[in-house]
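User: I'm putting together a small comparison set for a docking exercise, and I want a reference complex before I start. The sequence is below, and the ligand is iron/sulfur cluster. Could you produce the 3D structure with the ligand included, as structure tokens?
Assistant: Of course. I'll restate your input first, then give the structure tokens for the complex.
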Amino acid sequence: MAPIQNPFALQKPLKLSICYTETCNLFCQHCYADCSPEKASAELNSEEWGRFLDEIAELGVVYLYIEGGEPFHRPDFLPFLASASNRFFTEIRTNGTLITRDVTARLKEIGVGIVLVDILSPHAEVHDSFTGTQGSHARACEAVTYLVEAGIETQLLTILNRRNADDLQGYIDLAQRLGVKTAGVLRPYPLGRFKYRWNEVSLSLDEMHAALDSLRLPAGMKLMQSWHPNDGNSCWQMAAVNAFGDSIGCAYLREYVNYGNIKNVSFMETWDHPLYRELRSGQVKETCPSCSSSQGSHGGCRSTAYAFHGAWDAPDPFDRTLNHGVDLRVLPEWLLQPRPKPPGSPR
Ligand code: SF4
Ligand code: SF4
């Protein structure tokens, strides 16, 4: 059978995601970036990030998604954001704890597009135990209030796991109380510190769907969720650069790929990397009808397909149609190695 391919093909990126820093004021048990408070000297400095903004503006990028680490933890972040928001639609993912009223006023002035705040549970004690920081829930909720009051588009995000699945409705209700109109429920990824706690916190696919299916959305509330077919294979349209300048295609591929460093080569040289081209082509072994009808892409997320099967064109086990009995509560052994490399990988 001929491989299934995505009919879309971008000649250059329109949307780009950057991990501005791998530092953070919190120390979450589940941090995908394995953040620590101190900046590693190899992180891109302000000038290097500035030059990169010029380069991608020239390329025609229109949408910049900024995450970390915690972007607001780097003292040079607001000037960077101001410069970025002049040229791109900007979206920031943050733990919210560093967003004061003054910072909110500055964000309004800058004209930021969307702010996404991570809230791991409606219950402060559960959220704070995840973040390892007492009071982080209260501060995140305060930040959401400031942002909503300022009229900045604000959304909540949570990562579904064993410790918050029972009260997912409480999370939606909290979003409503805070005045937020979009709440995201994201699938967990076996990355960073999260993978070392996977056995303790992960759910089976049925348990994840049961939690999602039980939700009652208040009028006007939009649910954003990352299970197929709502969230298809988006590799064809993604570009990402980490805090050190490595072009990694997507933040969720951060441990598996490196297409080159933008300090040494142009972004478009990394875009041309054979593996990057392969992932953008959307070639997968298997798909189901709802893929193309919902997204025009096939096979679900490449990060989790690779994590569980060690192959880029494998089926995404978070997809009910393509799961084929994979128990999502059990990680393949190779993922827990310090530098994960699947069995038989030529890398
Ligand atoms: S708040 Fe985000 S960046 Fe900071 S440690 Fe937690 S998961 Fe990592
Ligand atoms: S790796 Fe997954 S999340 Fe990232 S762009 Fe590809 S499909 Fe989307």
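The chain has a mean pLDDT of 92. The beta strands are 15-19, 63-67, 89-94, 114-118, 153-159, 182-186, 222-225, 240-241.
User: Thanks, that's exactly what I needed.
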